[in-house]
Design brief:
It is a single chain. The protein is an all-alpha fold and about 280 residues long. Helix content is about 75%, strand content about 0%. It has one domain: MetI-like fold (Orthogonal Bundle), CATH 1.10.3720. The chain has ten helices and no strands.
Length: about 280
């Protein structure tokens, strides 16, 4: 039926509805309800033994712990120990970042779908998936069992984790390059390696620097944690302080960790701003 303006009215079954990724709205609401019920079931099953008294006891214990930490123990011998272990932590992060990035480069280029042959692509993607599948503390425990307690285990663990992180992100950056430059280089009769050096590398070099610094920043934080399982660094000293009930010394260690992580974050942000 035509309206006064001369336009025909839409039939009722042609009313516009916002599109949904679930195919139809019934499936969408079924997914929403199912997800909500699952979350509620998880909360009930996991918090079934949690009571108000337990929460109040935990708050009271936390306050007592904070009271024991303040003020931090800044005796000269404690400061010297913290500085020594923190130096070891930073060195672990540097060595692990260098080693991990060096190993990651060929994997990243192999995992870029637009430049790698199909068999190498699948192999590289499989390596990335495997290295990203295991948490850092589990890798650190395995490394401690393999090479013994100390910074070497920490370097092995952090390098392993760097491979999965760096390779995945760098491969995605390579896939986003302008392939026109590579096609132009290929048209001159250049080899695959020459096309890689002159067409691909210049486009991803700034991103490479930014990712490297960002991963180094993450590795500093990781190296402060894995010492808890014996993989060297300041985490080892932190664990000992808690085991000996030296909470004021633990507070000094935590302050040192916070200071180093913040300094690394500021440096990382500055470098990434400069190169990008």
């Amino acid at each position: 039926m035509a309206t006064e303006e001369g336009h025909s009215e839409l039939p009722p079954d042609r009313t516009w509805r916002r599109p949904t990724a679930f195919g139809n709205h019934r499936v969408k609401w079924a997914v929403y309800v199912g997800a909500t019920l699952f979350v509620l079931w998880s909360l009930v099953s996991l918090l079934a033994d949690v009571s108000l008294g337990r929460l109040l006891t935990g708050v009271n214990n936390g306050l007592l712990l904070l009271e024991a930490m303040v003020p931090p123990n800044t005796a000269s011998e404690n400061v010297d120990r913290v500085v020594g272990y923190m130096g070891e932590t930073i060195a672990m992060a540097f060595v692990a970042t260098f080693t991990g990035v060096l190993i990651s480069l060929p994997i990243a280029f192999g995992a870029a779908e637009n430049i790698a042959p199909r068999p190498i692509y699948y192999l590289s993607r499989g390596i990335i998936s495997i290295t990203r599948a295991i948490d850092e503390l589990i890798v650190a425990i395995i490394a401690v069992k393999a090479v013994g307690v100390g910074p070497l285990a920490g370097i092995v663990a952090i390098s392993y984790l760097t491979i999965g992180f760096f390779s995945k992100l760098f491969a995605e950056d390579i896939e986003d390059i302008d392939m026109g430059a590579k096609a132009a280089i290929d048209a001159t009769g250049a080899s695959r390696f020459q096309a890689l050096v002159y067409a691909v590398v210049p486009q991803v070099a700034p991103r490479f620097v930014g990712l490297t610094v960002y991963r180094w920043d993450i590795n500093i934080r990781s190296s402060t944690i894995i010492g808890i399982v014996g993989a060297g660094g300041i985490g080892t000293l932190l664990l000992r302080s808690f085991e000996r009930y030296e909470y004021d010394f633990a507070a000094l260690i935590l302050l040192a960790i916070i200071a180093v992580v913040l300094a690394g974050e500021l440096f990382s942000a500055y470098v990434r701003r400069r190169v990008q």
